[in-house]
Amino acid sequence: xxxxxxxxxxxxxxxxxxxxxxxxxxxxxxxxxxxxxxxxxxxxxxxxxxxxxxxxxxxxxxxxxxxxxxxxxxxxxxxxxxxxxxxxxxxxxxxxxxxxxxxxxxxxxxxxxxxxxxxxxxxxxxxxxxxxxxxxxxxxxxxxxxxxxxxxxxxxxxxxxxxxxxxxxxxxxxxxxxxxxxxxxxxxxxxxxxxxxxxxxxxxxxxxxxx
Length: 211
Fold this sequence. Notes:
Blueprint: H1 18-24, H2 31-51, H3 56-73, H4 85-104, H5 106-109, H6 114-119, H7 123-145, H8 151-161, H9 167-174, H10 178-199
């Protein structure tokens, strides 16, 4: 578990934001941009659909139909922070895809209340989306940070933050001193913080998140 990651607002240094990524994927030939987009948002779409009660197969179906819709509609997407920006747009899109899927099967779900549950827009659903959104951005940045730090630094960080290993355990397993372990953790957090800032300067204040 990655806990205690509190990222404060700081000026971003590079233009590798989500906004620039959304511009790049307007070009269907930009395979690198689409690969980055997939790595960031495909897991989010799947996990959110699963968290709303869909089966593995249905969640995969929703993710695929969301991608089809994104390919068709991204060129018309206009960022409007006052309306929630891309986050709100994607949340609306995945919700509609889930409703469409269940409407096609209304005979099977008529007595389950599943469709009514999906239509519900209460705060708990909004909180669920926010949680999955933040967690996926954190997961993505942790993996991106792996290429910016040494393997030993990354291993020490993940053992501490993901495996909940103690500092003495990390020292023993990696042959490091306590000071080296603390420095590795700080270096990894700095790399993740920078990536979070670059990805989305508006959403870098984060509390305790799971990885």
